[in-house]
Amino acid sequence: MENEEVAQFEMVPVTSSQLSQVGYDKATKRLQIVFTKGQVYVYHDVPEEVYTNLVENTASVGQYFNQHVKFSFKYDRLS
Predict the structure, then answer these.
(1) Cα–Cα distance for residue pair 7/75, rounded to 1 Å
(2) Rounded distance between C-alpha atoms, residue 1 and residue 64, angstroms
(3) Is residue 40 scored above 50 in pLDDT?
(4) Within 13 A of 43's CA, how many CA atoms are on the CB side?
(5) In whole numbers, what is the pLDDT of the chain averaged over residues?
(6) Which pTM value belongs to this model?
(7) Residue 56 scores a pLDDT above 80
(8) Which residues contact 56 (CB under 8 A, 6 or more apart)?
(9) How far apart (Å, rounded) are the C-alpha atoms in residues 29 and 31?
């Protein structure tokens, strides 16, 4: 991620057995996910509506993540 704009994530907690927090930076279209086991990933070029659907998905945040984010976008593991 050299020479790229620094993303600013406002993290929000989610109710999920897989994910604990999610954040989105509109300027860079990056989605940050903190998993319940502590791993942190950043997904790139994520449309804002994907983030909105993820945090507003009351049925299953984890299921939405698996179906619409996990293998749909390039990502970097931060920790």
Answers:
(1) 14
(2) 26
(3) yes
(4) 20
(5) 90
(6) 0.87
(7) yes
(8) none
(9) 7
